[in-house]
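hey so i finally got around to running both of the ones u sent me last week. sorry it took forever, my laptop kept dying halfway thru and i had to restart like 3 times lol. anyway pasting them below in the order u listed, first the sequence line then the structure token line for each. didnt double check formatting much so if smth looks off just lmk and ill redo it

first one:
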Amino acid sequence: QVELVESGGGLVQPGGSRTLSCVGTGFSVANTVVKWWRQAPGKERELVAQIREIEGIPSYAYSVQGRFTVSRNAANNTVYLQMNNLRPEDTAVYYCNYLLYWGQGTQVTVSS
């Protein structure tokens, strides 16, 4: 059974950092595409970052390039989203996604 569980959200001051984790079960993150999305209130869900299959090449939305880093650890079957220099506009619920499967989301609020 496939399951994704996100964690790591919380309240962060502007300019701060946060690392989100997505633990997968029922599949291997090492050879699949796992994506990070976010959804702010009143807005559509936005693809933030993804890490491609075997070669592990990451790609990012323009809005987070240079600030966010996606990575994975096959040993604990986890995909991470390291977020630096956070801005108020990064406030959203962050979700990880694999094929048709979604996690429950984790709230990130950037505010002073």
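and the second one:
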Amino acid sequence: VEIVESGGGLVEPGGSLTLSCTTSGFTFDLFGINWYRQAPEKEREKVAYITPSASFTQYWGSAEGRFTVSRDNVKNTAYLHMERLTPEDTGVYYCNTILGTRGPQWGKGTLVTVSS
């Protein structure tokens, strides 16, 4: 199983960014995808979830109304589009899925820095 996040970088407050989560090694369209973030010196927190067929999405905290999670089951890739970013959105963003008995699988994350 391989999960690779990308698309992070430096963005100004108020800006937008889209992260990608590219996967391999499992049947992507059978599993939901979670997005988490970990701000400096804070615990990792879930920000978004999408079901295998993309029929349902859920957001937590400040992500609601600003972030949009999506997926392309042909490309085995999930996305997190983020708008109206603030410095509080700074952190490492991780993609995660739970593969039954194989348990949770994580990527190494991609760093998002919101700063002027």
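quick thing i noticed on the 2nd:
The two ends are 37 Å apart (CA to CA).
anyway thats it, ttyl
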